[in-house]
């Protein structure tokens, strides 16, 4: 059976993994809770209207359109069943894997000023305990 790789997160890290697996002969599923990759370093330019939103947010399926070995999936991951080697999606569906890559980004810090988070540009990502 073809080796199944599930990559959670289509940020810089997740995309880099998928690019590196080109030609490896794996069956890759790239899961993200958003339908687009967000180029975070240019958020400032969007906030100040130097760039349009569409300049820094690209549909993941478009980035992967030439990769027949990659399936993109819009879903939120809520957990991992390591014993069963399955990713648990919101709603209860399960995604089996042979190799799992968790590339869900980082939590932001507000240096004790947690009230600032609501006004910050990036949504808080969801975390779970494995
Ligand atoms: C304003 C700003 C400016 C920056 N400037 C620079 C810079 O100049 N140079 C630099 O090197 N870095 C910069 N960075 C940092 C850089 O953008 C990050 O280090 C980088 O984006 C992290 O990549 P990542 O793949 O780890 O995570 P992310 O890019 O955050 O990707 C994580 C992905 O995982 C998905 N995800 C998370 N949780 C789940 C879940 N439960 N289920 C499904 N999907 C999920 C998210 O939707 C997201 O697409 C900047 C960041 C910001 C916010």
Give me the CATH architecture, please: 3-Layer(bba) Sandwich
| Mean pLDDT score | 91
Question: What is the CATH class?
Answer: Alpha Beta
Spatial strand arrangement across the major sheet = 5-2-1-9
Find the CATH superfamily.
Answer: FAD/NAD(P)-binding domain
Classification by helices and strands: alpha/beta
Helix tally equals: 3
Order of helices and strands: EHEEHEHEEEEE
Radius of gyration: 16 Å
CATH topology: FAD/NAD(P)-binding domain
Give the tally of β-strands.
9
* Largest beta-sheet details: 4 strands, parallel
Estimated share of beta-strand residues: 25-35%
Helix content: 10-25%
Number of domains: 1
- Flag low-confidence runs: 124-130
Give the overall shape.
Answer: globular
Q: Give the N-to-C terminal Cα separation.
A: 27 Å
Write up what this structure looks like:
With 130 residues, the chain is an alpha/beta fold. Helices cover 14% and strands 29% of the residues. The chain is built from three helices and nine strands. Strands 5-2-1-9 form a four-stranded parallel β-sheet, with helices on one face. Strands 6-7-8 form a three-stranded antiparallel β-sheet, with no helix packed on it. Strands 3-4 form a two-stranded antiparallel ribbon. Strand 1, helix 1 and strand 2 form a beta-alpha-beta unit. It is globular. The two termini are 27 Å apart. Mean pLDDT is 91; it is low at 124-130. The structure holds flavin-adenine dinucleotide.
